[in-house]
Design a protein that fits this description.
Strand content: over 45%
Order of helices and strands: EEEEEEEEEEEEEEEEEEE
Number of strands: 19
Largest sheet: 8 strands, antiparallel
Number of helices: 0
Distance between the termini: 23 Å
Strand order of the largest sheet: 7-19-9-15-16-17-12-13
CATH class of the largest domain: Mainly Beta
Shape: elongated
Length: 208
Protein backbone atom coordinates (compact mmCIF):
# COMPACT_ATOMS: atom_id res chain seq x y z
CA UNK A 1 0.00 0.00 0.00
CA UNK A 2 1.34 3.43 -0.88
CA UNK A 3 0.55 6.97 0.19
CA UNK A 4 -0.33 9.32 -2.65
CA UNK A 5 0.46 12.93 -1.77
CA UNK A 6 0.29 16.12 -3.73
CA UNK A 7 -1.88 19.15 -4.26
CA UNK A 8 -5.46 17.86 -4.24
CA UNK A 9 -4.24 14.26 -4.46
CA UNK A 10 -3.60 12.98 -0.93
CA UNK A 11 -4.73 9.58 0.31
CA UNK A 12 -3.93 5.90 0.62
CA UNK A 13 -3.30 3.78 -2.47
CA UNK A 14 -3.94 0.02 -2.04
CA UNK A 15 -2.26 -2.61 -4.17
CA UNK A 16 -3.41 -2.38 -7.77
CA UNK A 17 -4.26 -5.61 -9.62
CA UNK A 18 -6.71 -7.16 -12.04
CA UNK A 19 -8.97 -10.12 -11.29
CA UNK A 20 -6.42 -12.39 -13.00
CA UNK A 21 -3.26 -10.98 -11.37
CA UNK A 22 -4.42 -10.49 -7.77
CA UNK A 23 -2.62 -12.57 -5.08
CA UNK A 24 -3.80 -16.19 -4.93
CA UNK A 25 -3.14 -16.74 -1.19
CA UNK A 26 -3.09 -13.32 0.49
CA UNK A 27 -3.40 -12.40 4.15
CA UNK A 28 -6.95 -12.32 5.52
CA UNK A 29 -8.28 -8.77 5.21
CA UNK A 30 -5.99 -7.62 2.40
CA UNK A 31 -7.58 -4.81 0.36
CA UNK A 32 -6.73 -4.21 -3.30
CA UNK A 33 -7.94 -2.02 -6.13
CA UNK A 34 -9.10 -4.26 -8.98
CA UNK A 35 -8.85 -2.27 -12.19
CA UNK A 36 -10.75 -4.51 -14.62
CA UNK A 37 -13.87 -4.51 -12.41
CA UNK A 38 -13.40 -0.99 -10.97
CA UNK A 39 -13.92 -2.29 -7.42
CA UNK A 40 -12.16 -2.49 -4.10
CA UNK A 41 -11.71 -6.17 -3.23
CA UNK A 42 -11.14 -7.71 0.22
CA UNK A 43 -9.73 -11.18 0.86
CA UNK A 44 -12.22 -12.67 3.33
CA UNK A 45 -10.36 -15.67 4.66
CA UNK A 46 -10.97 -18.06 1.76
CA UNK A 47 -12.02 -15.93 -1.21
CA UNK A 48 -11.95 -12.43 -2.67
CA UNK A 49 -15.10 -10.34 -2.37
CA UNK A 50 -16.16 -6.81 -3.14
CA UNK A 51 -15.79 -4.20 -0.43
CA UNK A 52 -19.22 -2.96 -1.49
CA UNK A 53 -22.38 -5.00 -1.11
CA UNK A 54 -23.69 -3.73 -4.46
CA UNK A 55 -21.40 -3.84 -7.50
CA UNK A 56 -22.10 -2.02 -10.78
CA UNK A 57 -22.17 -4.38 -13.78
CA UNK A 58 -23.50 -2.49 -16.79
CA UNK A 59 -25.93 0.19 -17.93
CA UNK A 60 -26.68 2.64 -20.70
CA UNK A 61 -28.59 5.70 -21.81
CA UNK A 62 -31.07 5.11 -24.64
CA UNK A 63 -33.09 7.38 -26.91
CA UNK A 64 -36.38 6.52 -28.63
CA UNK A 65 -35.85 2.73 -28.64
CA UNK A 66 -38.50 0.03 -28.95
CA UNK A 67 -36.51 -2.49 -26.90
CA UNK A 68 -33.42 -2.70 -24.69
CA UNK A 69 -31.77 -6.10 -25.15
CA UNK A 70 -29.07 -6.93 -22.60
CA UNK A 71 -27.01 -10.11 -23.00
CA UNK A 72 -24.46 -11.95 -20.83
CA UNK A 73 -25.06 -9.78 -17.74
CA UNK A 74 -26.12 -12.56 -15.33
CA UNK A 75 -23.24 -14.86 -14.38
CA UNK A 76 -22.22 -17.18 -11.56
CA UNK A 77 -20.35 -14.27 -9.93
CA UNK A 78 -23.57 -13.03 -8.32
CA UNK A 79 -26.75 -14.80 -7.25
CA UNK A 80 -29.02 -11.76 -6.98
CA UNK A 81 -29.17 -8.46 -8.88
CA UNK A 82 -30.68 -4.98 -8.75
CA UNK A 83 -31.95 -3.09 -11.80
CA UNK A 84 -32.64 0.67 -11.68
CA UNK A 85 -34.31 2.62 -14.47
CA UNK A 86 -35.77 5.97 -15.48
CA UNK A 87 -37.69 6.41 -18.75
CA UNK A 88 -39.95 8.81 -20.60
CA UNK A 89 -42.30 8.20 -23.54
CA UNK A 90 -44.24 10.34 -25.99
CA UNK A 91 -47.46 8.40 -25.37
CA UNK A 92 -49.04 6.41 -22.55
CA UNK A 93 -47.31 3.03 -22.37
CA UNK A 94 -46.89 -0.04 -20.19
CA UNK A 95 -43.26 -0.85 -19.42
CA UNK A 96 -42.60 -4.57 -19.71
CA UNK A 97 -39.74 -6.99 -19.18
CA UNK A 98 -38.68 -10.49 -20.25
CA UNK A 99 -35.78 -12.70 -19.31
CA UNK A 100 -33.30 -13.68 -21.99
CA UNK A 101 -30.92 -16.56 -22.72
CA UNK A 102 -28.44 -16.98 -25.55
CA UNK A 103 -29.52 -13.68 -27.13
CA UNK A 104 -33.22 -14.65 -27.31
CA UNK A 105 -36.17 -13.50 -25.19
CA UNK A 106 -38.15 -16.12 -23.32
CA UNK A 107 -41.76 -15.25 -24.23
CA UNK A 108 -43.65 -18.27 -22.94
CA UNK A 109 -46.72 -17.65 -20.78
CA UNK A 110 -44.91 -18.44 -17.54
CA UNK A 111 -44.58 -14.94 -16.05
CA UNK A 112 -46.69 -13.93 -13.05
CA UNK A 113 -46.68 -10.72 -11.02
CA UNK A 114 -48.78 -9.47 -8.15
CA UNK A 115 -48.80 -6.09 -6.52
CA UNK A 116 -50.53 -2.92 -5.49
CA UNK A 117 -50.90 0.37 -7.32
CA UNK A 118 -51.98 3.83 -6.27
CA UNK A 119 -52.28 7.18 -7.95
CA UNK A 120 -54.46 10.24 -8.41
CA UNK A 121 -57.25 8.08 -9.84
CA UNK A 122 -57.33 5.66 -6.92
CA UNK A 123 -55.68 2.47 -5.77
CA UNK A 124 -56.07 -1.27 -6.21
CA UNK A 125 -54.52 -4.66 -6.73
CA UNK A 126 -52.27 -5.53 -9.66
CA UNK A 127 -52.25 -9.09 -11.00
CA UNK A 128 -50.93 -10.73 -14.18
CA UNK A 129 -50.97 -14.53 -14.21
CA UNK A 130 -49.43 -16.80 -16.87
CA UNK A 131 -48.55 -13.99 -19.27
CA UNK A 132 -45.58 -13.58 -21.67
CA UNK A 133 -43.82 -10.82 -19.68
CA UNK A 134 -43.67 -8.90 -16.42
CA UNK A 135 -45.17 -5.41 -16.13
CA UNK A 136 -42.69 -3.19 -14.28
CA UNK A 137 -44.16 0.31 -14.71
CA UNK A 138 -46.45 2.74 -16.47
CA UNK A 139 -45.46 5.94 -18.29
CA UNK A 140 -47.71 8.76 -19.47
CA UNK A 141 -46.82 11.26 -22.18
CA UNK A 142 -46.40 13.93 -19.48
CA UNK A 143 -44.85 11.91 -16.64
CA UNK A 144 -41.76 9.63 -16.60
CA UNK A 145 -41.30 6.44 -14.63
CA UNK A 146 -38.41 5.66 -12.30
CA UNK A 147 -37.93 2.50 -10.31
CA UNK A 148 -35.83 -0.37 -9.07
CA UNK A 149 -36.25 -4.11 -9.19
CA UNK A 150 -34.42 -6.93 -7.43
CA UNK A 151 -33.99 -10.19 -9.35
CA UNK A 152 -33.26 -13.43 -7.52
CA UNK A 153 -31.51 -16.47 -9.01
CA UNK A 154 -31.64 -15.58 -12.72
CA UNK A 155 -28.46 -17.62 -13.36
CA UNK A 156 -29.46 -20.53 -11.10
CA UNK A 157 -31.46 -23.54 -12.30
CA UNK A 158 -34.50 -22.61 -10.23
CA UNK A 159 -37.45 -20.25 -10.66
CA UNK A 160 -36.39 -16.64 -11.12
CA UNK A 161 -38.18 -14.24 -8.78
CA UNK A 162 -38.39 -10.46 -8.63
CA UNK A 163 -39.77 -7.66 -6.53
CA UNK A 164 -39.68 -3.94 -7.05
CA UNK A 165 -41.33 -0.57 -7.10
CA UNK A 166 -41.79 2.13 -9.69
CA UNK A 167 -43.78 5.24 -10.26
CA UNK A 168 -44.35 8.93 -10.52
CA UNK A 169 -47.77 9.17 -12.16
CA UNK A 170 -48.78 5.75 -10.87
CA UNK A 171 -46.89 4.02 -8.06
CA UNK A 172 -46.54 0.23 -8.23
CA UNK A 173 -45.26 -2.19 -5.58
CA UNK A 174 -45.00 -5.75 -6.83
CA UNK A 175 -43.38 -9.16 -6.75
CA UNK A 176 -43.32 -11.86 -9.37
CA UNK A 177 -41.80 -15.05 -10.64
CA UNK A 178 -40.96 -16.87 -13.84
CA UNK A 179 -42.15 -20.46 -13.61
CA UNK A 180 -39.23 -22.06 -15.42
CA UNK A 181 -35.92 -23.38 -14.12
CA UNK A 182 -33.83 -22.01 -16.99
CA UNK A 183 -30.52 -20.27 -16.24
CA UNK A 184 -31.04 -16.85 -17.81
CA UNK A 185 -28.11 -14.65 -18.81
CA UNK A 186 -29.88 -11.45 -19.87
CA UNK A 187 -33.10 -9.46 -20.07
CA UNK A 188 -35.15 -7.18 -22.32
CA UNK A 189 -37.05 -4.04 -21.31
CA UNK A 190 -39.63 -2.78 -23.78
CA UNK A 191 -42.80 -0.67 -24.04
CA UNK A 192 -46.02 -2.35 -25.14
CA UNK A 193 -46.18 0.30 -27.88
CA UNK A 194 -44.09 3.20 -29.22
CA UNK A 195 -40.59 3.91 -27.79
CA UNK A 196 -38.83 4.88 -24.57
CA UNK A 197 -35.98 7.27 -23.72
CA UNK A 198 -33.90 7.29 -20.55
CA UNK A 199 -31.32 5.19 -18.74
CA UNK A 200 -30.90 1.92 -16.86
CA UNK A 201 -28.22 0.35 -14.63
CA UNK A 202 -27.64 -3.18 -13.37
CA UNK A 203 -25.82 -4.10 -10.15
CA UNK A 204 -24.88 -7.41 -8.55
CA UNK A 205 -25.28 -8.18 -4.85
CA UNK A 206 -21.99 -9.39 -3.45
CA UNK A 207 -22.20 -12.99 -2.22
CA UNK A 208 -19.83 -12.35 0.67
Amino acid sequence: MGIAQGLGNAGLTPGIYTSSTRPASPADGLVISETDTDTLQIYKGSAWGSASGLVYITGAAVSAVSAINVNSCFTSTYTNYRLTFSFTATTDIELQMRMRVGGTDYSGTDYTDYGYFMGAGGAGNLQHVNVPNWTIGYISSSEPVSGSMDMFNPQVATKTQMNGMSGIRLSIYENGRLNTTTQYDGFTIFPNTSTITGNWKLYGYSNS
